[in-house]
Design brief:
This protein is of the alpha/beta class and 366 residues long. Helix content is 39%, strand content 14%. It has a ten-stranded mixed beta sheet with strand order 8-6-5-4-3-2-1-9-10-11, sandwiched between helices. The chain is globular and about 50 Å long. It starts with a helix and ends in a 14-residue tail after the last helix. The relative contact order is 0.16. The structure holds iron/sulfur cluster (2 copies).
């Protein structure tokens, strides 16, 4: 695996990149802080324990219309399906922003709501793609112990199964399972892969994240204090072996089963003191975060620099304003393993090196 990825990197030529002009392509949007679980590994437990206000649908619509067409919006939280108007939010991005890909991150506790929204998505035929990403932290005992939620494993598997059954007849839709790897579930990678392979559902791996152990060099005055209450990484010396184990699963499954393999290798290198193959090109430039109360951040590891309530929910104006520019100047020397920003920076870098078409060439929206 490591050798494969090294070849991949060298095939791209330069391992540097330049900071792109600020233009949002990928947005993480916390539609709610409310959640029906209290997971040990949750990075946002203080938000979940004390949910703040939520943007109204009208405010979401203004936000979506203010920005250029997005490549991806990740609707997250909290538990997004707790929002009664989640479908209207999805539809707003599909129709008013013409977002290419809408992803909904969920704990899978509400299979019926998921299927209801899936039906509406199929009827809409907007041309957008949609992914449901369902978290699965381990086998039943581990999953339910970590989430303090009896019955949650069976509900999540039911949700995965039901969505997978609809996938073949629902154009532009897919369902995936996500496992955040940490010291409590590291032994269950192979049995989980067996389960998901049987369901024909791709498996996304990530490492549990916390500012204290997943980032380096963030200036203290903008560093967000986001850490899980009770969860840590597996021992660092075990990480290379872990990637080998996941690579072996991928090989066994014939490819296209384990997602984000390249990002996993970069994360392991960073955790073991290495340098990233490209700078953080996306945070605050092509990728950003909107929290449920309207506050806006360059990434989840840095504090918000503004709030949409102060600019009539015009995200584009805030993104191109002086506060955002100040923030961009402060995030040129940090590093982290946050997968959303590694993936989008990787994508940006591939665009810059001409390896993939630039998203800018796509029809613009907004
Ligand atoms: S990790 Fe997700 S499901 Fe768990 S408490 Fe946090 S927001 Fe809720
Ligand atoms: S996402 Fe980028 S800007 Fe944010 S902490 Fe990580 S490296 Fe720094």
């Amino acid at each position: 695996m490591r050798r494969l990825f090294s070849r991949f990197l060298s095939a791209q030529g330069s391992t540097t990149g330049h900071y792109p002009e600020p233009r949002l392509k990928d947005l993480i949007f916390f539609v709610t802080d409310r959640c029906n679980m209290r997971c040990n590994h949750c990075m946002f437990r203080h938000r979940v324990d004390h949910p703040g206000p939520e943007l109204t649908l009208e405010q979401v619509s203004t936000l979506a219309r203010s920005i250029p067409r997005l490549r991806t919006v990740a609707l997250t939280g909290g538990e997004p399906f707790l929002r009664e108007d989640l479908w209207e939010i999805i539809k707003t991005f599909c129709l008013e922003n013409r977002t290419f890909h809408v992803q909904v991150d969920t704990n899978g506790s509400m299979p019926d709501r998921m299927l209801e929204i899936l039906d509406r998505f199929a009827d809409l035929q907007s041309g957008a793609f949609m992914t449901f990403q369902v978290s699965l932290d381990g086998l039943k005992d581990t999953h339910e112990r970590l989430r303090h939620s009896p019955g949650s494993f069976d509900r999540a598997v039911t949700a995965l199964q039901a969505c997978r059954e609809r996938q073949d007849s629902t154009p532009h839709f897919r369902v995936v399972a996500l496992t955040d790897i940490h010291r409590e579930n590291v032994t269950e990678i192979e049995p989980l892969a067996d389960l998901l392979s049987g369901l024909r559902i791709p498996h996304v791996y990530d490492f549990v994240r916390g500012v204290d152990y997943s980032s380096w060099g963030i200036p203290a005055d903008i560093r967000a204090d986001e850490n899980p209450r009770d969860c840590g990484l597996p021992p660092l010396e075990d990480l290379p072996n872990l990637v080998e184990r996941i690579a072996a699963v991928e090989l066994r499954e014939g490819g296209q089963f384990c997602q984000w393999m390249e990002q996993l290798q970069i994360q392991v290198d960073l955790y073991r003191g290495g340098k990233p193959p490209f700078p953080c090109l996306s945070a605050g430039r092509t990728a950003g975060v909107v929290y449920s109360d309207g506050s806006v951040a360059a990434c989840e590891f840095t504090r918000p620099f503004g709030n949409l309530t102060d600019c009539r929910f015009d995200l584009n104006a805030l993104w191109n304003g002086p506060e955002a520019e100040q923030r961009r100047k402060k995030i040129v020397s940090c590093r982290c393993t946050h997968s959303c920003f590694l993936l989008t920076s990787h994508q940006e870098w591939l665009e810059q090196t001409g390896q993939i078409p630039a998203f800018e060439s796509a029809e613009s929206g907004g």
